[in-house]
Write a structure and sequence with these properties.
6 strands; 65% helix; Transmembrane_161A/B; mainly alpha; globular
Length: 464
Amino acid sequence: IVIQKIIPHYSFARWLLCSGSLRWYQHPTEDELRSLAGKQQKTKSKKDRRNNGHIENKPLTIPKDIDLQLETKCITEVDTLALHYFPEFQWLVDFTVAATVVYLITELYYTVAQPSGEMNISVVWCLLVLAFVIKTLFSLTAFYFKLEEGGERSLCITFAFFFFVKAMAILIVTENYLEFGLETGDTTGSVLFSRGPISKLTFKLILALLCSLIGAFLTFPGLRLAQMHLDALNLTTAKVTQTLLHINFLSPLIMVLLWVKPITKDYLLNPALGKESMPLMTEETYDTLRLWAILLLCVLRLAMMRHHLQAYLNLAQKGVEQMKKEAGRISTIDLQKMVARVFYYLCVIALQYVAPLVMLLHTTFLLKTLGGHSWGVYSEEDLPCPMEINSDPAVVAVATAAPGLAVVAQASVVQLSVALGGLRTVFTPLLFRGLLSFLTWWIAACLFSTSIFGLFYHQYLMAA
């Protein structure tokens, strides 16, 4: 309720679109097109058909090589009312901002007060954000499935099967190469399947199906990102901006390499410096730096958002320039639709850009909180997990504070404490650390795979 009252006055999503840095191309009116066509065709005749006394005009057509210059306009709040998926975009971005603020305040509270036996409420907010992201990506994917033509449905199904096979292959890789902590007796000492309700094979099969679903959801965001990346590079001439755009595009690859032990971790923890081997940092420090690297790359992606959205909006002018090179005629309605369609689907593109970013950000937050990591670079080896529940003091407090309490109530408290203790032996910080590390790595891997395919498609296949 508080968020709904704040959004009409202060909305970060509305500021991203309506701050004045984005300009969209307005479609020409029919009178303007008629005037331009009249200048080129001096002897143009109108042919009418009379049916039952009514005059039916043919659709107005103009030459494709007409001298048309589109007018630009800054996006205003009134313009956003006509955008498809704008309410979903505004709610997702603003709720993510609110959840991030709650997370930061909670982390500050746990750093200063260091409470024990309390549930970290920021975990609930992060889970809600991830639920909204999955719902949004599902609705966007369902939108592509409804299209009968274009091949989007087949492409999505193909990538879903591809990511399922890829996930099964990744899950059999040993921890010597990909360090997640999903195997028994790995270098971090995590044991995930020694005490649990399911077997390792069943767990990996369920995880592979989840990875396939995530990969299918991230297919079109990755393909769209590749096209916007190429257009953004052509749009700017500043070397610094181009460098940041390249780093932004390669940021998922950087995240993927952070979990590849032979490439990153082994060189930092056990560097070969002559005859002596002196580690540059501890494993806890490396885990902390990995979290900070992901956060910085997420901030960079958010900073580059306007360059990508403006590159998408320029597709309207790009389409008109391409039309001028073609021969023939086009109806005014088709021309107006071609130009207006780009702006009306701006929020769909913005959601495809923001949703993977939000998934990575809040999965990293969960990895830090549930995995027992620390934001401090030089953290101690044994850090208390904020999600730990100390059940023994509760039993003692009930037994000592009210000596006349009924035996049934005492038995219920004991049973609840035993149940929570049993869950704690299964859902340990090491389990969350392994699972969330893999999911964070997988989101980045899916986004990079689809982006690379989109880059190859738009730069080579489309050009051919």
